[in-house]
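Running low. Invent one:
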Amino acid sequence: MPVHQLFPEPVYFSKIERALTKTELKTIAQYKDKTVKNIGNTISKDTYVLENKTLRNLKKDLNKRVLDYFDKIVCTDSPIIPYITQSWLSYTEPNQFHHHHNHSNSYVSGVFYINADKDVDKIMFFKTDHRELELNITRYNIFNAMTWNYPVETGDVILFRSSVNHGVGKKKGTNTRTSLSFNVFFKGKIGEDTQLTELVLE
């Protein structure tokens, strides 16, 4: 008998198919001197880094992936335009971590990896459904696991629903894992006025 996936959770993977320019790398490096403590690692004080004019092309590249996510996964004909809201840099040193969390007031969240080694760097997703019984699992799969790891490397872009819990385990290796995270919402109209569900977002 076949096993079907019921209501699977999408995690979208893509890449920025170019090296960052010297100007982009210089701008990103400057943010490392202006960070604040996070739970387990540090993040940039600036939470709108993609509004920096020197990163305009990177923002365009990431926005293309956002539009592709909506086209392939959301599949709506509602007259909406997705856009990136906040964006910030995260720095995770060896033996640091990034706490288990999700993103409120956002529809989709993304991560672009500026410095990541697929041999040691991963993003971890957490299932938050209540588990009625605790059984000893001998072979994990997508149906019985409560966490799932994906290796990540420089240039990767990952998009997922903002309500999905995620984090980073204790950092291995010697590199400083550097990532640019961002949230996405949309403008336009959803719902129907005749159904009393219309909402206009400007």
About this structure: The longest helix spans residues 56-74. The CA atoms of residues 47 and 88 lie 5 Å apart.
